[in-house]
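=== RUN LOG ===
request id: a7f3
mode: sequence -> structure
chains: 1
length: 261
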Amino acid sequence: MQRQRGISFQVRQGLNTGLVVVGSIGTDLRMDYTALGDTTNIAARLQQAADRGHILVSEATHRAVEGYFHTRELGGLVLKGKAQPVKAWEILGARMGRTRMDIVAERGLTPYIGREPEMQVLLESFKKAQAGQGQVVFIVGEAGIGKSRLLYEFRRKVGTDADWSEGQCLSFGQSIALHPVIDMMKRNFHIEDSDSKQAIAQKIERAVLPHGEDLSPLVPYLRYLMSVDPGDPSVLTMDPQQRRGEIFDTLRRLLVRASTT
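=== RESULT ===
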């Protein structure tokens, strides 16, 4: 819109966390399904207090997201309808490569007890991989039973004997098959969500080219994955199935080279 019509478009957001009353409000002529309560009122006031293009969160929301984002404390804000100032923080940007386990580990973990059989399976599979027998291990279980903690402790036991790449997929992203790979690339290339497209392109080159100048033809495909201009028009005009094959080959070559240098 800015480029084509000279129109700038910015939104501001206010977020709060807490209990609300949800239900249908209105008359026979118009019925709305909405949330009511002090929680939503504070969120609305924070939204009104935010500058365009900025996000303000309450103390309750800040406790829930602390560690996942870079924030700036604003102190107490005087909001309409509130007798006392409300503490608020501004969200500056997402922190790179932050998982729930990273945050919990920073805050301190309880002693790790049990899961010896599961840990033994992982360690035995790792030994087989070290011996040249490729292994794939699936860890499946209901939420909250300790899958992430098991992997965290396994990683600590492995230590420097192996490189560790981690990526996440989206529960609603079935059509985004490469999302875990993109997430891994962001972590390994130290790409922040706040980075400009130029900065992303530079980080990709800095991560790839030290493994060999012959890998430079891979850069356009990696830039395409990161939603950056690939710098090679043929990548954009390529048949989608052919481009997907080239991307997989790019990832394969990069992983093989990275594991041998």
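=== NOTES ===
The mean pLDDT is 86.
DSSP finds eleven helices and six strands in the chain.
=== END ===
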